[in-house]
């Protein structure tokens, strides 16, 4: 089906989120939408999906104007959407979640679930998904939840599929799988609109690229464009796409984790006698396939979870039995993996979220209350410094775009005297220009003498930021290697192969390649 958006304009008060946007997507085409945080991409997709009413403009399907007053209307017309924030209900099964997509206005019926079960099985077979229709959503890894969203979007035979930053929570392997599925769907005639901040993905899968800046289309680009060209077009200035940092100047043990073990409620070892020391003034980045204990390690460092054994020592002080509040007060900056559940309070204002764990400290405290002036001044400064795109600092943070919410969390955590920085997926959902800035600030935190731990599923980010890389596997550190370690070796270590063996196996593979070439 051909999709045409003509002159779409959407305002929120005085803010023009979409300013006369025109877009034509042909059947079977993969169109990427690129743009800075807050450029208006999600808003445009929400207009297309019937969630927002456009103030001006028209949507045409195969040349015929259509009007959607709800998502149900859009679904009925053949539009499917996978949202940036998952819309799945954790306590439902996969089949129940898909059944909800059939009739958005009706209650869940048994017959629907039966049909949905069948549908999940069929779609899984078609695309090689490994999804159990009876599994509970909350028990599934995010990558599988993402696939359930796709099955759900496809359950009404969508001819136009919108994927709003589907890869932000996926591992590189899952991303590659998703791109294969996108190609398969496009070959079958589905039109796909794909939103991502990762230029590699855009270049790998898109047929055409539309760039949006501050609510307006600024141009089209071809997937053959270089990453530098695309970044410049997006942000309006040249962007450094690698981390620029000097050598580290480590100054003795900062964070020491000794013999940490943690048992999950079901008895599996999620941290297994883990030892790791991060010196003051160095960045240790943790590489690993998601689910090898990285998130649990971060929670143990902050005190959200108590380990079953072992100790956490910061600057000589044993924190193992201290609560989260005490740890935060001691100057730990913590960027959580999932901003929406651990990093912000949706109903609070942007200004309040910028002091969420610091409001009891100077200069924000005024007796038992908060000093509104200090909070407002801080918001003003952070918004400018981190280039956070907002309307007013007194608006709820929930009105910000996803990437701008992330920037609020990062700005808050980095703008303090840090005794430790624990950054988990620090640039998730953030545009390339802001990635450059956040990386710079993380390096500055290191250079000010703080120990820094970065956890990231982006290998480029790990390699770019790290002074040393700790590879995590099954709850332990399988090896600590220099940042310039060969990526193939890192890949093998992430699969559980110890360093020496990984190097030997990499060498023998290289040798075989040379023989093959000869
Ligand atoms: N419900 C809302 N109320 C007020 N303002 C909103 C609302 N939704 C979005 N906005 C504003 O509209 C603008 C566009 O936001 P949108 O979410 O479309 O950006 P985006 O391009 O998807 O960004 P990102 O890459 O960060 O996801 C932003 O300035 C945002 O703050």
From TrEMBL:
Please indicate if the UniProt record lists Translocase as a keyword: yes
SUPFAM superfamilies according to UniProt: P-loop containing nucleoside triphosphate hydrolases
Matching entries from SMART domains are given as: AAA
- Enumerate the InterPro entries for this protein: AAA+_ATPase (IPR003593), ABC_carbohydrate_import_ATPase (IPR050107), ABC_transporter-like_ATP-bd (IPR003439), ABC_transporter-like_CS (IPR017871), P-loop_NTPase (IPR027417)
Assigned GO CC terms: plasma membrane
Protein topology in the membrane: Peripheral membrane protein
Q: Which Gene3D superfamilies match?
A: P-loop containing nucleotide triphosphate hydrolases
One Pfam family cited in the UniProt record for this chain? ABC_tran
Task: Report the locations given in the UniProt record.
Answer: Cell membrane
Identification of the protein by name: Heme ABC transporter ATP-binding protein
């Amino acid at each position: 089906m051909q999709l045409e958006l003509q002159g779409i304009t959407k305002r929120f008060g005085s803010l023009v989120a979409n300013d006369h946007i025109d877009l034509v997507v042909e059947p079977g085409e993969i169109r990427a939408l690129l743009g800075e945080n807050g450029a208006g991409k999600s808003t445009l997709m929400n207009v297309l999906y019937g969630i927002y009413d456009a103030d001006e403009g028209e949507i045409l399907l195969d040349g015929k104007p259509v009007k959607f007053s709800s998502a149900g209307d859009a679904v009925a017309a053949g539009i499917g959407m996978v949202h940036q924030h998952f819309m799945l209900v954790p306590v439902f099964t996969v089949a129940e979640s898909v059944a909800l997509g059939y009739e958005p206005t009706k209650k869940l019926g048994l017959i629907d679930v039966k049909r949905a079960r069948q549908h999940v099985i069929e779609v899984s077979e078609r695309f090689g998904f490994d999804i159990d229709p009876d599994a509970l959503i909350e028990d599934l890894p995010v990558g599988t939840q993402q696939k359930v969203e796709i099955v759900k979007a496809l359950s009404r035979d969508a001819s136009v599929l919108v994927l709003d930053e589907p890869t932000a929570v996926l591992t590189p392997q899952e991303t590659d799988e998703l791109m294969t599925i996108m190609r398969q769907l496009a070959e079958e005639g589905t039109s796909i609109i794909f939103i991502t901040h990762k230029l590699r993905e855009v270049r790998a899968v898109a047929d055409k690229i539309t760039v949006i800046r501050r609510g307006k289309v600024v141009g089209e680009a071809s997937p053959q464009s270089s990453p530098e060209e695309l970044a410049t077009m997006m942000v309006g200035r040249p962007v450094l796409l690698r981390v620029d940092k000097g050598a580290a100047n480590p100054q003795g043990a900062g964070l020491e984790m000794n013999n940490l073990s943690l048992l999950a409620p079901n008895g599996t070892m999620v941290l297994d006698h883990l030892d790791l020391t991060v010196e003051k003034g160095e960045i240790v980045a943790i590489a690993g396939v998601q689910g090898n204990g990285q998130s649990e390690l971060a929670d143990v460092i902050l005190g959200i979870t108590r380990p079953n054994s072992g100790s956490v020592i910061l600057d000589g002080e044993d924190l193992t039995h201290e609560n989260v509040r005490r740890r935060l007060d001691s100057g730990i900056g913590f960027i959580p993996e999932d901003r929406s559940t651990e990093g912000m309070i949706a109903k609070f204002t942007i200004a309040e979220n910028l002091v969420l764990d610091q409001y009891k400290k100077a200069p924000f405290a005024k007796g038992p209350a908060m000093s509104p002036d200090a909070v407002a001044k801080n918001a003003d400064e952070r918004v400018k410094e981190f280039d956070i795109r907002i309307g007013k600092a007194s608006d709820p943070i929930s009105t910000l775009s996803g990437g701008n919410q992330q920037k609020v969390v990062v700005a808050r955590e980095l703008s303090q005297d840090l005794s430790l920085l624990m950054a988990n997926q620090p640039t998730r959902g953030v545009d390339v220009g802001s990635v450059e800035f956040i990386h710079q600030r993380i390096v500055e935190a290191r250079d000010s003498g703080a120990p820094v731990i970065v956890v990231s599923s982006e290998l480029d980010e790990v390699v770019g930021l790290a002074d040393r890389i700790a590879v995590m596997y099954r709850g332990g550190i399988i090896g600590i290697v220099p940042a310039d370690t060969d990526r193939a070796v890192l890949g093998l270590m992430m699969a559980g192969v110890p360093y020496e063996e990984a190097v030997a196996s990499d060498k023998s593979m290289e040798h075989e390649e040379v023989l093959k070439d000869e």
